[in-house]
Amino acid sequence: MIIGGGVEQVPAYEAAKKRGLTIVGTDISKSAPALALADHILLVSTRDAEATAAAAVGFSKQHPIDGVMTIANDVPYTVALTATELGLNSINLDAALCASEKLLMKSRFQKYGVACPWFSEVGTVEELECLTKDRDHQDYVLKPVDGRGARGVLLIDKSIDLDWAFEESKKWGDSGRLIVEEFVPGVQLSTESFIVDGVCYTPAIVERNYARMDEFRPNIIEDGGTIPALISEELGIEIDDLILRGASAMGISSGIVKGDLVIDEKGNPLIIELAARLSGGWFASHEIPAATGVNLVDAVISYALNEKVESEVLMPKWQRAIAIRYWFPEPGKIREIRGEKQLQEVPGLFKHGFFRKVGDVQPPIKMHPDRFGYVIVEGEGRTEAIARVEKAIACIDIGLE
Questions:
Q1: Domain 118-182, what fold?
Q2: What is the pTM of this model?
Q3: Rounded distance, CA 118 to CA 79, Å?
């Protein structure tokens, strides 16, 4: 069973098909693109854990289910509850709750001495003002405790209207609860790790690109990333240890762990967040296999089926450079998309896609789903990959009304 039928879940369906597995796909929309690859479909919201579990249990009485997973879908509790109800392999429900609720997650980090930025729950504008009173010297990040996709994630600096920020962030979470945390300047990293027998394997680390922070503030919008990240071997070992301890604090002893980290001014890694799932943005499904030869999607399928994941399959077979960037048009109705032919001629072009088409409306950029599209390229090294991806981005001209 694959929870979710969106476009970023397609690689999991394709991987399962390649292994000869029968697929049960779930999504609230019967037109979700990945469901075209499913053998059976359950129309249920991925974010409704109880309904998904009930539908799975009912279906399994006629067609037994052997594993449950997702990719690029921040619904760890739905996956864990469904697997638990079916008696299948998964992280436990407590760990899934930790992965779903940022305040609970960070409280566990604090309890077990796992390095992370300072944080606090904030219930009123007055509390926010009190907690961030030193804004002339320090920036903070405000976000929903249960948000996703950078929705409602705001940079709090001395110029921001706190009343507006509080209400804006609050409306993007399900619970209405907010968390404020210290914004730590430094290199930000995305990690994709798999834990086996008490060892954390991280085949690739992405250096996240926040070069457009000033353009989009107070919204915090990532513009892709680059593999390999510019970190030392020693720092990589330290990051593996930190992720392992962070996962343990959450109650995760095996399986996939996606990390968002920052390296502070002293060179120390801190965990911003950990997620108990495969990442989106084509990182797990395309970038890591291209850069290292490691197929984490296949590893997660094996884990869900309670098959042994050997450490050898998690070790890089090669090291290549990969870069991804996004398009950020001005808002308006899309009249024309020019330059795709030139884009396809860029050396090293690996994959690209547009989230909107002619006639659609491009919204203002406030969160990650507002980005227009992406392009991924590969190169012999970082410098070449970055140069190629910048050339690729420049090929596309989006005409707006």
A1: Dna Ligase; domain 1 (3.30.1490)
A2: 0.95
A3: 30
